[in-house]
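Lecture 7 notes: from sequence to structure.

We start with a single chain of 366 residues. Read the sequence below before looking at the structure.
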Amino acid sequence: MSHVSTPQRSDSDAPSGRGGRGRKRGRTGKRRTGRWILLSLAVLVVAAAGTGYWLYSDLNGNIEGVDINDAIGKDRPEKLPTSGQNILILGSDSRAGDNAELNTGKVAGARSDTALVMHIPEGRTEAVAVSIPRDTLVTRPDCTKADGTEVGSAERVMFNSVYSQVGPACVVKTVEKMSGVRMDHYVEIDFAGFKDLVDAIGGVTVTVDQDIHDKSSGLELTAGTHRLDGTESLQFVRTRHGVGDGSDLGRIGLQQEFMIALLSEIKKQDLLGSPTKTYKIADTLTSALTTDSELASLTALTDFGRSMNGVDPAAMETIMLPVAYDKTDPNRVVAAEPQASTLWKAIRNDEEIPESAKKSPAGGGS
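Now the structure, written as tokens:
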């Protein structure tokens, strides 16, 4: 795996930047999964593989649940007319708890550092994930905080700020409003969970074709092959400075490169074939997970995981939401039309996404 992508700052207000280098595509022409897709799916795959997990009732207590249906109410898009599923996957950059010990920046509060809408069509033999750039300007709808406080709608707010301002349920509502796509499930994992996952499997090997010196993330790598532990892996997927042009949009490609290495490591070690290792990973991941209340148990995760047995995570297509640079603030992006509407319509109808809807005018992430 060679490093060809442009990374991202760790602070939430980092500019997107123009003129980023293009993302490397695989031979199939598909963009591979981002780190949070795998982390979330790993729980589902592990649960599906461990038919005896009902014996480990302590794992149930690890998972935090959010009642999305109660928080949002009935003001939601209709469910898919098929058996397809849509899952909103968030990577949280909270600096609280275990995350406070990580070198992840000095921004207060928490934000949705990474956001993906994973669509699993009817039949569940394939999947596509739409990455929503965190600097996308959106209209935040009326929402209710966990403590019952009402928060009015606001226009032109950064997408990743919705999490810290109002909470995860409002992020779900915001995505549903901007897409018209109902989210069947919600999965969130934090920095500490990502670090612990890599440490649990004994590290991940990556190869970079140029030196990386990033004082912001703390990453120091020379060109060549390196075995990264959890902390170094977190620095790797978040690094921005010292490589390429620093494009915010381009860092998605760097994360995808890391995921290929992580998937290869899991396959090489046959982690899912070892009950002891499987339990260790499941314990690590469930401790770091927050899901919607319907998935907040090992039984629910197991059932959902079994239903996805036909999906190959390594072959999923990922698409960045088509965006264009904002005319007022070139460091921010907005959904590009008609591409974005065409993409969301295809997902709503559980149809194949046209190639024209996958092209983003914003060059930094193309």
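The mean pLDDT is 76. Keep this in mind for problem set 3.
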